[in-house]
Write a structure and sequence with these properties.
Rossmann fold; alpha/beta; elongated; five-stranded parallel beta sheet; four-stranded mixed beta sheet; 20% strand
């Protein structure tokens, strides 16, 4: 009985191969994005919802002055002992906020908070893209238990494909040796399915998003 079923299947395959379809099946579309923005929905709101869904803290600033006030109050409330900033632009911006921070890479293991910029933000996944070509390098977004990112609304990009296209245009043929997507704080449940935060990176991810359109209006 089994042989008869097998023979029937083989006969059907041979018949199909001997009489191919006149019209070949349509080729799959491997170029168009699968992600379609919902009409009328603010990209900032979509990103904020997706980012916050990963249990990450989100702060929105309508101006640079509001950002300075927000981050100064936040850092004072958290009482960090060793804040590290390596990017010159960011250090200059926070220098007038009466925030004590370290710009040296010595004793990084003792840092309890790292503050960095980013390459871009991915709307669909609520992710932050960073690279080794930034002033913060590879380490500052990984070593400290708390990672604070400062970004602007103009850095929001629809999807991962668009983010990679952005990186290619920015760096041309000299792409960074490390491009990383940060989607929420580091977590794992590999051991006995128990959720552990900070297993492979920071336990907390905080984003300060500045509306640069309003900031420069």
């Amino acid at each position: 009985m089994a042989n008869s079923a097998r023979d029937n299947i083989l006969a059907a395959v041979k018949s199909a191969l001997a009489h191919p379809r006149e019209q070949a099946p349509a080729r799959p579309d491997l170029v168009s994005s699968l992600y379609v923005r919902e009409k009328g929905k603010d990209p900032v709101l979509v990103f904020a919802e997706n980012f916050s869904a990963r249990k990450s803290a989100f702060h929105y600033s309508e101006s640079m002055d509001e950002f300075r006030q927000q981050i100064t109050a936040y850092l004072a409330e958290r009482k960090f002992r060793n804040i590290v900033i390596w990017e010159k632009e960011l250090a200059e911006e926070l220098a007038g906020c009466h925030v004590q921070f370290n710009t040296s890479d010595r004793n990084l293991a003792a840092a309890d908070c790292g503050i960095t910029l980013c390459e871009c933000l991915v709307e669909r996944t609520g992710s932050i893209m960073v690279s080794s070509r930034q002033g913060a390098g590879r380490r500052l977004s990984i070593y400290p238990p708390v990672h604070i990112v400062v970004a602007s609304v103009s850095q929001i990009i629809p999807d991962i494909r668009d983010a990679l296209t952005f990186m290619k245009k920015k760096y041309h043929q000299r792409l960074p040796s490390m491009i990383s997507m940060i989607t929420g704080a580091s977590r794992t449940a590999d051991i006995e399915k128990t959720l552990v935060m900070g297993a492979h990176g920071p336990k907390e991810l905080i984003l300060f998003l500045i509306d640069d359109a309003k900031a420069h209006a």
